[in-house]
Each structure stands twice: as structure tokens, then as C-alpha cells.
Amino acid sequence: MSMTSRRDWVADLANERSLIGRSSTAARVADALRTRVIEGALLPGTRLSEEDLGAALGVSRNTLREAFRLLTHERLLVHEFNRGVFVRTLTPDDVRDVYQYRRVIECAAVHQSAHAPAGALDAVRAAVEEGEAAALVDDWSTVGTANMHFHQGIVGLAGSQRLDEAARQVLAELRLVFHVMADFQRFHESYLTQNRAMYQLLRTGRIADAETELARYLDVAERQLLDAFRESA
Amino acid sequence: MSMTSRRDWVADLANERSLIGRSSTAARVADALRTRVIEGALLPGTRLSEEDLGAALGVSRNTLREAFRLLTHERLLVHEFNRGVFVRTLTPDDVRDVYQYRRVIECAAVHQSAHAPAGALDAVRAAVEEGEAAALVDDWSTVGTANMHFHQGIVGLAGSQRLDEAARQVLAELRLVFHVMADFQRFHESYLTQNRAMYQLLRTGRIADAETELARYLDVAERQLLDAFRESA
DNA sequence: TATTGAAGAATTGTTCAACAATCCCTATTC
DNA sequence: GAATAGGGATTGTTGAACAATTCTTCAATA
Question: Which of A61, A101, A103 to mutate against chain B (most B CBs within 10 Å)?
């Protein structure tokens, strides 16, 4: 038994060790760029020059091009043939489509949440708490990130890799809209209490109510975003 | 009026002209590889050597690597660091996840089909007819392709770019399973009449029935595929 | 002043060669 | 059979080069 137990953690360590250093430079560059796009350091419309970025990051143009290919598929960048690569700007139609997509994915996940994997609801709660803590110190960027984690957690209730990945992408994409919004704080501050309420509905097993509340939230959020587009036009 | 009309078709022509020759070699290579993966010329597990493939296609290794980056994101290829790129092999858990994902997407699209865009239902009908014609001449590969078109058309009823793209990907991915199946014909021949029946339900506006029928079909198909995995193990 | 065209500079897309690092395969030894 | 070492093959990355395309600027013209 003692010998078997030792083999288990040795195998675990070997497993974990094998992941160290096993990512390509292209993937790492893509990670760095993705983070900057999501957090707003690279704003929509920004042109990403191969020359400048390659020099800044200390990688060759070919490696950078590979990283660009990874990110264009995530719809964070848009690749214009012979003109270069840009951080994507979303249109009102994009916003409508994003919310239609989210309604399909997020509401289905809540619908299936009676069979959520172990720990999935904990992730939802953690995201609620993360947002509330950030709001206490007026860190609205982190509130935005926590809200994204909340909705990622909602989709995680379905226990599906492909749904998780779809959510990851579309929630990242939606961040692009927020970075050009005039009133980011106003948009997010009403959602903290709403997220808490949704979590409570889920925790107490009131799935149909949670689904209704989520759909209502998505409708309101979509309308607010579209209104924000009109204000800035 | 005559002057306005001229400007319209001039603008249309300019629009169309700007698309000619505006794809990169990397994108074209990815298209060629994607088709071969979907149609089964490149089977799951196949290793795609940069050297061999670059020579065969007459492109440089860098260009090929860009193409690989495009396809790994579509889950058709899997990129193993320092070992190369392989056509993906799906596991039984993958199949379960794919069907969970399809149930979410396809059933939601049918649910929303009262507001389908103009021509969307025609695409569904065309796919049904394509499959029936192919079966008449025992062209079961085209039956498989037509079935994919049918389900792509189902999702098209939602009129959402992001749902369309999600469907395109997951249906392509599912093709990988069929290429290693022993009895491809048996799997597909019962679905032609079912697709016709589903189309009729949609055409006559019986949306709830169509949704129920689709969910039932997806359950059956999933079970059959999982059974086929057990038979081959 | 506004528009058009030409020229030059900047950039992208692709190829090629080179090299370091890693993996795979084979042969040898215990 | 298992472990090890060596050699070859391949991947990951860099950098240079060049053709093609786009962008910017300036001059000429209406």
C-alpha cells in the first residue's frame, strides 16, 4: 500500500513536470496578446505591425504570424490580407449575434445544471465573491473580469468541454465591446447583486427560475450595450 | 433613378472583384487539408509531416505551419509539441461531448426557427434532396456530406453567424468518427427518411414536434456511434 | 480648393537556409 | 525483456531575401 501510494504521486509529479516548457513560443505569444486584448491594453482597431511587435517581443516574424493565426480564429484579431492584423471592432450586429449565442449556450447550461460536475457551482460562487470584493475597492476592471468568470462558471455547469471553449471565446470577444464603452462602471455595478441572486437560485435548486433570470439579464445587457452604441454614434 | 441604379451595381462589382485573389496561401492550404480530412483521404491518426506535405503541396514549411495553426483550432488536427501534427482521433468521451453540444445548438436553432431568415428552410430541403439523390446511386460518401449539410441547414434556421460557425466545426469534427466506422452505410441509410420527416415538420410549422424529433434522432445517433466504438474495441 | 496620378517608402506574404533542441528508431549490453 | 547510447530525422525558431501590395506624400491639373 505504501509502495502503491508512492507510485501515484511520483506519476503525478512526472505528469506535471512534463507540462513545463511544453508550449511553443507561438502559443506563448498568443497568450500574451490575448491577455492584452482582453484587458484592454490593445484596443479595438489597433493595428499589430509584425515588425514592431516582433521587435518588442523578441520573436521572429514567422513566429508572430503563427500566433496571429491562433488569435484570428478566436475572433479577437482580424486578419486583413496584405493590410495586416487588427484588434477586432465589434458592430451592433455582432453584439446581437453574441447575445443570441450566449442565450443558447448559457441558458442550456443552466437547464442541464441538475447534473453539474462536482465543484462547478463552487466556481460560480467564487466568481460572485471575486466581483463583490473587487467592487469594494472600486477595481472595476477586475469586476469585469469576475463577471466573465461568473458566466464562464455558468456554462461550466453543463460539464462540456466544447461548451466551455465556446463560452471562453465569446466572453473574451465581448470584452472588446466594453473597452470602447464610455460607462463601464455603470454597466457592471448592477450585475453584482444579480449574479449573487442567480447563484442563490442555482444553489437552492430553482433551476427554472435561474434560467428565466439569466435570460432576462441577457436581454437587458444586450439592450444596454446596443444603447451604448447609439450614444457613441 | 437610373444614375442611382448604376452606382449600385458598380459598387456590387467592386465588392465582388475585391474578393478575387484575396486569400493567402496558408488559408488555401488549410482549405485543401480540411477537405481531405472531412472527406476521409486523411484518416484519424495520420501524421502530417511538414517536410513531406510541404514538398507535395509546393509550399514552404513556414506557410504550412500557419495552415496547421488554422486547422488545429478547428479541432480537426492535433498539434503535439515537438512531435508534429496529427489528424485527430475522437474518443468516446469526445463523441458524448459532441452530441451534447449538438443538442444545445441544433435544438435551440429549431426552437428559434419561426424567425428563420429567408431561404434558410430551402437550404434544409436542398440537403434532404441531395442525400436522397446520392442514396439512389449508392454514393454513401455524398450521403454523409448531405447529412452534414442538412444539420448545417438546421442550425442556419437560427440566422446566427456564430451558431453557423460552431455547427460547421462540430459537424466537420464528427466526420472524423465516421471515417473509422466499419458500417458507414448502415449508419446513414435510416436517416434519409428521418431528415425528410423533420423537414416536413418544419415546413408545416410544427416546431415543437420537429424539436422533439431532432432530440430523439441525436440521442439515437449518439448511442449508435458509441456502440460502434465498443464493437471496434 | 479638390481631385488625380505618380513615385517612393513601408509592409506583408512567402521562400529558403541554417541551427538548436527534441524525439524516434536501432543496436548493444546486461 | 529492460535499459542505455548513438545516430538520424524532425520540429521549432530565427533571420535574410525578394516579390507583391498597400500606404503616404507630392506635384500637376481642373
Answer: A101
